[in-house]
């Protein structure tokens, strides 16, 4: 192992991993010791093993909190979704898995497609600073986003304020759809949330090492095996060759 890479990625001798605890697909269980577990912690442990160091999970309530800590000496790598705002302070790897994001519509909604949602006057509830909400804020032309503190709070606002759409990760919206009889989940997706490993700017050798690790993990079937192990098959997908 190149010592320069190890010094960049684990300057304290331990790989400190910024972990987003709000993603219920990537962190969905506990280890025997009671530590958070799932695809995201497992991929971090695999990277630590490749690097030859132990892993310490640094827990954050949401992805925005992880991104905010990029300027401090808190984590060495961050397992969160890549998007342009975060890329200003984090170097992202290619995605190791993807999650589809779409809309839940209220009963008797006249909207039929993703394009129909982006119309003047339409209001979309979404968890603030989630990767899909940041994408909507950057890409919507006419509709507006109503931010909430959590997926659950976004659903409550969607229902109580009679909003035109609820944005979210497809697996979560499938769950929430059961709480609103007659609601419609669009089959079309407005974006794919790309889960990546990020590191600090300036660590070019480390970034190249992480990129190689992610590509190998996808190609070797490691990512697919973790998706199956943590029982999120059909909810998380392995990136296509274009990535």
Briefly, what is this?
The chain is α/β, with parallel strands linked by helices and 243 residues long. The chain is 34% helix and 25% strand.
Architecture overview:
With 243 residues, the chain is an alpha/beta fold. It has 2 domains: 3-97 and 194-229, D-Maltodextrin-Binding Protein, domain 2 (3-Layer(aba) Sandwich); 100-191, Periplasmic binding protein-like II (D-Maltodextrin-Binding Protein, domain 2, 3-Layer(aba) Sandwich), CATH 3.40.190.10. It contains 9 helices and 12 strands. Strands 1, 4, 5, 6, 7, 8, 9, 10, 11 and 12 form a 10-stranded mixed β-sheet that branches. Strands 2-3 form a two-stranded antiparallel ribbon. α5 (131-139) links the parallel β8 (123-127) and β9 (144-148). It starts with a helix and ends in a 14-residue tail after the last helix. The mean pLDDT is 95.
Which descriptors would you attach to this protein?
D-Maltodextrin-Binding Protein, domain 2, 12 strands, alpha/beta, ten-stranded mixed sheet, single chain, two-stranded antiparallel sheet
């Amino acid at each position: 192992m190149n010592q320069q890479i190890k010094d960049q990625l684990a300057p304290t001798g331990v790989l400190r991993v910024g972990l987003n605890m709000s993603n219920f697909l990537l962190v969905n269980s506990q280890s025997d010791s009671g530590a958070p577990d799932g695809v995201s912690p497992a991929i971090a442990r695999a990277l630590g093993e490749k690097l030859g160091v132990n892993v310490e999970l640094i827990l954050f309530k949401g992805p925005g909190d992880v991104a905010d800590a990029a300027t401090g000496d808190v984590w060495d790598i961050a397992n969160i979704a890549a998007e342009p705002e975060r890329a200003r302070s984090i170097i992202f790897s290619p995605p190791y898995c993807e999650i589809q994001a779409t809309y839940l519509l209220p009963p008797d909604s006249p909207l039929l497609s993703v394009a129909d949602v982006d119309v003047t006057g339409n209001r979309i509830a979404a968890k603030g600073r989630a990767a899909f909400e940041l994408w909507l804020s950057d890409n919507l032309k006419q509709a507006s986003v109503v931010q909430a503190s959590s997926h659950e709070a976004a659903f409550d606002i969607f229902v109580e304020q009679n909003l035109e759409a609820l944005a979210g990760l497809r697996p979560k919206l499938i769950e929430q759809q059961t709480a609103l009889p007659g609601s419609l989940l669009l089959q079309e997706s407005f974006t794919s949330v790309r889960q990546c490993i990020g590191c600090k700017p300036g660590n070019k050798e480390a970034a190249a090492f992480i990129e190689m690790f992610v590509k190998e993990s996808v190609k070797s079937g490691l990512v697919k095996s973790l998706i199956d192990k943590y029982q999120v098959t059909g909810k998380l997908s392995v990136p296509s060759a274009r990535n």
